[in-house]
Structure formats: C-alpha cells, structure tokens
Amino acid sequence: MGTGGNHDALGADGPVVRRATGRDAPAVAGVRLRSFAAALPGVRRARTDRQVAEWIREAAVPHRETWVAAVRGEVVGMMVLGGGGEPEQLHLDPARRGRGAGDRLVGPAKRRRPDGLVLWTFQANGPARRFYERHGFCGTGRTDGARNEERGPDIRYEWRPGGR
Prior knowledge:
Keywords: Acyltransferase, Transferase. 31% of the residues lie in helices and 26% in strands. The longest helix is centred in the N-terminal third of the chain and has 15 residues, at 25-39. The chain has a 4-stranded antiparallel sheet, with helices on both faces. A 3-stranded antiparallel sheet has the order 5-7-6, covered by helices on one side. The protein is globular, with a radius of gyration of 15 Å. The chain is α+β, with helices and mostly antiparallel strands. It has one domain (16-163): Gcn5-related N-acetyltransferase (GNAT) (Aminopeptidase, 3-Layer(aba) Sandwich), CATH 3.40.630. It has helices at 25-39, 49-63, 101-112, 126-134, and strands at 16-19, 65-71, 74-81, 87-92, 117-122, 138-143, 154-159.
C-alpha cells in the first residue's frame, strides 16, 4: 500500500503515512487519548488511559493493521483497521487537525477496501462527521449507543467508490 510499500510520502513538512511500529505505541496512544478528550468531552470513556495505552501497545500495533501519520517524525494521527480492513479507530492530535494528516490516513483504508468501507462515529463528534462526509462517506444509520462500550449515540457511515 502506498508509495515505497508502507509509506505515503508528501512534501517536506506534510504528513507521511506509514505502518506503526512498536516504538510508535506510546505516541499512538497519546494521539488517541488527546483526540477523544478534545472531540468527545461529554461521552463516557469505557477505558482508562492506562487500558487504552496497553491495548495500543499489546493488541493494535502488533496484531492489527495500525497506521500513523507523522510530520518530521512526530506522530500526529493514527488509524487502526479491523480484520476486514474497516477503520475501527481514526484519531488526530487536536493541535494538528486541518493540516492533511486525516486526509492521508483515509487513503490506506480506501485502497485496502476499494469496493467500499463502513465505519461508526459518535453523533456528538461533529468534526469527525464533517471529515467523513468531506471524504465521500454517507450516513446510513443511527443508534442510541446501547451496543457500544461508551453508550454514546452513534452514526454508521459508508463509503462507496463513485458514490454508489
């Protein structure tokens, strides 16, 4: 996937997207935690910071397809794809939103699943919803949150190539 195997290069100061390594785990966890806190202050957290960091270190990075967006070596975004290639997590450092890292992270997911993607986000996460809609995802369903760990109302998004 991407140029040079695991890399999606951009300009000198733009984000580079690559597969995460074990050394990235603390930075990946930090991005995930800061992003969730900034975007969803009213949503109940199902896991402690320590549990999130442990999951990233012991499960996501070594056993799932985990990607990072880095600028000059600093991890500014992360994405975890599930076994079927569907995005399970996509988070950006709040201080780095709007600078192209999220745009770059969506690419590997779309290439992995060229026939389409399905993902979920919280209804309360306006920035994520606008981001997905800007990238061609359409809302196809809503729930009251009873089936997610946080118990927050969520929305199902689908992306199909060509908008079909």
